[in-house]
Design goal:
By secondary structure, the protein is α/β, with parallel strands linked by helices. The protein is built from nine helices and 14 strands.
């Protein structure tokens, strides 16, 4: 069980796809969770709690918007006008710039009851990055390199999935967005950003691979994501006095910079710290942490930090602009 008491707090769900099922499976592990209704516009997903009437969710204490990306604004808009509880919405917030601009106009008190789930903010990766910045352990950060790949595009079921055809930029919207937000959330101040998508596998019509480059005043970042490569999860953070690597289920810190051989030439710094790190485990933990934060606000009737709304808007705006 996960430690947030939800007695007498009812949860409504919009959507029932793969990610929705993942969220629901985690919610069911919270103590005294009651999933009251699951809405789908056309299907009756479960006999006891399924409904095709959105208004059946309006007496819930919180509603989770876990539907396809392009429907998020429609549901948020309807809920803003008819519902006074808390809203949890999966990323990306919206897919169109006009919808994003409309969201920015809503009352600040309503903004404090909406949570946008960029769950890497609640991840160990984010904590490590914050620590690098605050503690200056490896000096001033100069460059960050992120690789996240696997071979989904070569599996038979890929051609029949939404990832291969529904949206040409699925690789960015479903995978790259996590790391884009991670950098924006922790570093901010992006002066230049570029997006380079391509179709490597030749399977389907959506891009299966992309590279993002981001530049702040002093730090460059490259993010490479693909469904057409072997499985690789790797992060390197390079500073002026050392570097940090997360790869092969291990996080290591190497420092100081000034290490020399007997001839006075630079050599690789020693590892001064080493810990285990499993990307798959940490992803699920970040989801649990974000859900725990949201549900704690619901149960205790607390405002959601307005930073969640504001930084989610920044990430989504850049996401949309990169694709145009």
């Amino acid at each position: 069980m996960i430690g947030v008491q939800l007695a007498n707090n009812k949860i409504g769900i919009i959507g029932y796809g793969n990610h929705a099922a993942r969220i629901i499976s985690i919610l069911e592990k919270f103590e005294d969770t009651e999933i009251s209704k699951i809405f789908h516009p056309t299907k009756k997903v479960l006999e006891d709690v399924g409904t095709n009437r959105l208004e059946d969710l309006f007496d819930c204490d919180c509603i989770f918007v876990l539907s396809p990306d392009e429907t998020h604004f429609e549901y948020i808009n309807r809920l803003m006008n008819n519902y006074n509880g808390y809203i949890f919405c999966e990323k990306p917030i919206v897919t169109e710039i006009n919808d994003l601009n409309e969201l920015s106009k809503i009352d600040v008190n309503k903004k404090k009851k909406i949570f946008f789930n960029f769950n890497f903010r609640y991840s160990r990766i984010s904590e490590i990055l914050k620590k690098c910045i605050v503690e200056n352990q490896i000096g001033e950060i100069s460059h960050i390199n992120i690789i996240s790949t696997h071979g989904l595009a070569f599996k038979k079921e890929y051609l029949d999935s939404w990832r291969s055809n529904k949206n040409p930029n699925n690789i960015l919207d479903s995978l790259g967005i996590h790391y884009l937000d991670l950098i924006l959330y922790n570093l901010g101040g992006i002066k230049n950003a570029d997006y380079f998508p391509c179709l490597v596998s030749k399977n389907g019509n959506s891009y299966d691979t992309c590279t993002l480059t981001l530049k702040t005043e002093k730090t460059s970042t490259m993010i490479y994501c693909s469904y057409a490569n072997p499985k690789i999860n790797e992060i390197i953070v390079i500073g002026t006095n050392g570097y940090l690597t997360i790869r092969d289920n291990k996080k290591e810190v190497f420092s100081p910079r000034d290490c020399f051989d007997e001839k006075g030439f630079f050599i690789k710094p020693p590892a001064i710290q080493s810990d285990t790190f499993d990307f798959d485990v940490e992803y699920i933990e970040s989801l649990k942490n974000s859900l725990k934060y949201f549900l704690d606000c619901v149960v205790n009737k607390k405002s959601i930090d307005i930073e969640n709304f504001e930084k989610s808007m920044i990430t989504t705006r850049m996401l949309i602009e990169l694709k145009h």
